[in-house]
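User: Hey, quick favor. My workstation is busy. Could you predict this chain's structure for me?
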Amino acid sequence: MVKILIIEDDAAFNTLLKTWLTKGGFRAEGVLSAGEAMKAVQSQVYDIVLSDLRLPDTDGLTLLKWIRETSPDSAVFIMTGYADIQTAVQAIRLGAADYLEKPVDPVILKEKIDEILRKKDRPHERIPFIKGDSPASLRLYDYMMLVAPTLLSVLIAGESGTGKEYVANHIHQNSSRRDGPFVALDCGAIPRDLASSELFGHLKGSFTSAISDKKGAFEMADGGTLFLDEIGNLSPDVQMQLLRALQEGVIKPVGSSRIVEVNIRIITATNVDLKQMIEQGRFREDLYHRINEFQLNIPRLQERGQDILLFAHHFLEYANRQMKKQITGFSPEAEQLMLAYSWRGNLRELLNVVKRTVLLSEGPQIMATDLPDEIRNMQFTRPGQDAHSLKEQHERQMIIEALARTRNNRTRAARLLGVDRKTLYNKMKLYNLE
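Assistant: No problem, here it is.
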């Protein structure tokens, strides 16, 4: 069941939202402050978060940044009054999925939630896999195509957001099991007490919330491929059950004495060092060797050179179709900034940046000034600050773009660039732009 967290200090409105969502078939919880919200987000993963922009203990934008860092897979909607629409637009720049104007219309709310869930359910249908042209990308692709036709168990190692599920799905699509199901399960998003049920299924009444029989991921993947993401999050007892299922090819649903035969190929992924976890006694060594018959290491986006622009243009085409826009590309200055940026969130961060920028862009091309603050401010800084820098002509071009956008209004240009007027005047004098 889809889990939704409501952060709203108006208790009556909080209860109303919870009632609407519960009747709509969602599992909704409500909290009245940012502090309570942080405790809730740290204790479990929510598919969707509905947050008021104005909260008693902090502002919604600060909380948004924290949620995006702590729970990147949660889609955050900002709820706001008419007077705060501009701030809501800023929230989208910071990673919000969308905003909802108060009073919230339950029909619009349901439509926006359904759209987010459709995107989560069909990631491969919407954005196909692309291999890239850099040496690191080509090496990864060669190894993928080498192991795909075999029956070897594959362990995919890589940072969060590098596209591990896309790699797993591409291996499946190029294997002899391509006509069978591809079932993906995020072990990091499963409450520990439900992991066995998610993997092996359960019978009605086997535990408190088991209101009907359920097939687990193993049965659903029978004849195809089972992808277990963030496998290091499984508890020791579930690791033992998983090892037994892989070795014997049979499972037993929770609460059942029935033995079910399954025929799957297992692909797993991790963003932590499983060997280190073995040394710490937190991961079984025998399970590690069972799932790691062949290992793929996905490079960080920053290690893929010009592929950053290849992926950016690929995501741009997708965002254009999704938002019915016709953005033609990126300015040279925007491309230089994107190549220089660290992309700690990897492909996931790049996709989010492109989507937000397409939504907010007003011109035929995405300019440097359209990019989020963290990318622009990486090199456009006040004198005396320590920060990454690009060549001076990049900074000069950004000023020219900002002045053109604001019709030479220096106050607005400074605001657009994220600096004060004095800094802008000094830079203009430095680059002979007065």
